[in-house]
Amino acid sequence: MRAMVLDRPKQPLQLRDVPKPRPGRGQLLVRVSTCAVCRTDLHVVDGELPEPKLPLILGHQIVGRVEEIGGEMWEGPQRPDSRGTEAAPTFAIGDRVGIPWLGWTDGDCPYCRSGRENLCDNARFTGYTIDGGYAEFTVADSRFCFHLPEKYDDVAVAPLLCAGLIGYRSYRKTGDARRLGIYGFGNAAHLIAQIALFEGRDLFAFTRPGDTATQESAKALGAKWAGGSDEMPPEKLDAALIFASVGPLVTAALRALAKGGVVVCGGIHMTDIPSFPYANLWEERVITSVANLTRRDGDEFFDIAPRVPVQTQTESFPLEEANTALDRFRAGKLRATAVLTIAE
Ligand SMILES: [Zn+2]
Ligand SMILES: [Zn+2]
By C-alpha distance, which of 182, 191, 122 is closest to 162? Predict the structure, then answer.
């Protein structure tokens, strides 16, 4: 099969003919239709995340169709995080399937046993520690896969699998914050803002200073206020979400918080956070981060997304132009979420 392979960080991906993977027990062999490009892919290519599998096939926002099922399906309750008793989804040959970042957990460590499988000690991650979707085929453990809302086609649904899903987990960490700020108004922000507005939050959008085009698009979406990340909002915020990998935004967001407010860092990698006066944290302000996702996050997100309905904006690239997509992403030159289109 054709695949774009990362041999070593800081090198372009190589288009290569590699053996088609074979599904083990409970795994699906999936013919990949689309795979959206995530900022995490860039962090892996740029050597900013430790110890990726090498050589590696990137990509963890995968949409495809089940081609083959390895052995028997898992049976019984397999989703300890999903309300305790929910059975894993079952798939048949030909079904459409979504494959996310969380590829496998042991189900047995203290984190898994306490409903926090996103923190599993032995978790494996799609397109990072196991091969992902920048290829014609991939295999995935069926217990971690999702059925996708029919409302979306294969291109439109792909960005929901990470920007949407982990964005949603970040958003839920803001509790019932009424005044919600979002720093870094890119793809994840665009998706989560739609849910926040649907749920009646007041939205404050922070962009790179001077990026009036993004500020206008945030206002068009329904933001109450939009401005540069160096500005203070007209009201104090009950919560701030940070989707840019820029550490100084944490202290900026902290200054904008009301008492008891929370700053949620939604990314896997960030530059260093500058020091700040304790007074900015006092009065029960909180800084936290979000790591990975649980399957329950996915179930909840794919329930709410089509009801909003969350709209995605995409820009398609053929598989062999993955390097172009990554380069444009790094340079801030994408107009929307890049989606690799693989099968017809
Ligand atoms: Zn575990
Ligand atoms: Zn991602």
Answer: 191
Identify which ligand lies nearest to the alpha carbon of 122: 1
Q: Is 272 exposed, middle or buried (0-12, 13-18, 19+ CB in 10 A)?
A: exposed
Q: Do 193 and 170 meet the contact criterion of CB atoms below 8 Å apart?
A: no
pLDDT tens for the chain, residues 1 to 344: 999 999 999 999 999 999 999 999 889 999 999 999 999 999 999 999 999 999 999 999 999 999 999 976 665 545 444 434 456 788 999 999 999 999 999 998 999 999 999 999 999 999 999 999 999 999 999 999 999 999 999 999 999 999 999 999 999 999 999 999 999 998 899 999 999 999 999 999 999 999 999 999 999 999 999 999 999 999 999 999 999 999 999 999 999 999 999 999 998 899 999 999 999 999 999 999 999 999 999 999 999 999 999 999 999 999 999 999 999 999 989 989 999 999 86
Rounded distance from Cα 230 to ligand 2 centre (Å): 27
Read off φ and ψ for residue 105, nearest 5 degrees: -135, 160
Smallest-distance ligand from the CA of 36: 2
**What is the C-alpha to C-alpha distance for residues 277 and 265, in angstroms, rounded to an integer?**
19
Q: Which ligand is nearest to the CA of 102?
A: 2
Q: How far apart are CA 117 and CA 322, in angstroms?
A: 31
* Residue labelled with tokens 């971690």: 144
d(CA 201, CA 236): 14
State the distance from the centre of ligand 1 to the C-alpha of 124, rounded, in angstroms. Answer: 10
Ligand nearest to the CA of 121: 1
Distance of CA 205 to the CA centre of its chain: 19
d(CA 291, CA 20): 31
Total residue length of the chain: 344
How far away, in angstroms, is 101 Cα from ligand 2 center? 6
